[in-house]
Amino acid sequence: MLNKQLVINYYKNGETLEVIGKKFNVSRQRIHQIITKSNIKREIITNSHQTKNLTTHKLPSLSEKWVANKLISLGHIAEFTGYNNEYDLLIDNKFKIEIKHRTKSYIKNNNYYYQINLYKKIFDFLIIIVGELDNPTCYILPSSIKNYYFSVPVNPIFDTTFQRMYKEAWNQI
Q1: Element holding 66 (H helix, E strand)
Q2: pTM as predicted
Q3: CA atoms within a 13 Å half-sphere pointing along the CA-CB vector of 110
Q4: What SS3 class is residue 38?
Q5: What is the pLDDT of residues 107-148, one digit of tens each?
Q6: Assigned CATH for 43-172
Q7: Quick one: angle between helices 4-12 and 28-37, nearest 10?
Q8: Angle, to 10 degrees, between the axis of helix 17-24 and the axis of helix 28-37?
Q9: Residues of 75-114 as b/e, b for ≥16 C-beta within 10 angstroms?
């Protein structure tokens, strides 16, 4: 028996139609029918830069909006998943994006670093933004990177393998 309220709760929490369908052993289309009949909506940003279906408990942060607009400019569809979710954005109804933005640094071995903590986060891609949003540096990491703790240098003396692989790597998404 399909629990419609549970389906709705999964959807409100940012799960994709496909993932919800697999949990209940039904098609993505069946889940879509249930959601449509229930008039449940999430906030979706489209290429027209308009926000639709605002039902989140908190408004997106400036960094979440910045990333959403960047991905939209690359041809993606971005949905804000709301407060207390395990990730920040759902891209193209399938990729879970966690965003970490750091402007304050700490000192370690006489160098300045941005510190990122990912404890208990589930995502397909992590986007680390360092610096102010008017001229940020972004690192796009796949979920296969299993570190729970990152330190990104503020002013690296040379590019590391990490930086060469993931700095501004928007094409991974």
Answers
A1: helix 62-73
A2: 0.61
A3: 1
A4: coil
A5: 777 777 777 777 667 889 989 898 888 888 898 988 877 666
A6: 3.40.1350.10
A7: 90
A8: 110
A9: ebebbbbbeebebbbbbeeebbbbbbbbeebeeeeeeebb
